[in-house]
Amino acid sequence: MARYARAISESGYYHVVLRGNGKQLLFEDDFDRRAFVDTAADQFAKRSVVVIAWCLMDNHVHLLLRDDAAQLSKAMQALAAKYAQRFNRKGGHTGHVFQERFASFPVESDSYLLEAVRYI
Questions:
Q1: How far apart are CA 52 and CA 23, in angstroms?
Q2: Are 118 and 22 a contacting pair, CB within 8 Å?
Q3: What global pTM score does this model have?
Q4: Reduced to 3 states, what is the DSSP secondary structure of residue 99?
């Protein structure tokens, strides 16, 4: 089954959600959380993606990102791959860490931008 094309935001802002596979924990300790944040910072900096707000839940992540360079998909793919490899290696896990591809919701109005920041 073919995937639908990702919606492109005219404003450059996206609310992004990344979920653990089968609702599994993404972070087993604070070292995992720090590794995710460091990996995200590295991958986003390489691709000029700006973090506006973020929240790490036990089994999913919310991000509000600005992507003027149209690099969101590459940045998220690299982040998920690098973090999953580290998570599996560190914890002796195998298989998928993340459920499907990340979800992204274009933020096209100031009211939605404020709502997303408050929610996250």
A1: 25
A2: no
A3: 0.92
A4: coil
Q: What residues have CB less than 8 Å from 118, skipping those under 6 apart?
A: none
Distance CA 43, CA 49 (A): 8
Taking the C-alpha atoms of residue 87 and residue 26, their distance in angstroms, rounded to an integer, is: 8
* Token couple for 51: 């973090």
Taking the C-alpha atoms of residue 100 and residue 6, their distance in angstroms, rounded to an integer, is 14
H-state helical runs in 1-120: 30-46, 72-91, 110-119
| Percentage of the chain modeled with pLDDT above 90 | 87
User: What's the one-letter identity of residue 81?
Assistant: A
User: Among candidates 53, 68, 56, 60, which has minimal Cα distance to 118?
Assistant: 53
Contact 87, 79 (CB under 8 A): no
Question: Which residue, chain included where needed, has tokens 């709502």?
Answer: 115
Residue keyed to tokens 């944040």: 37
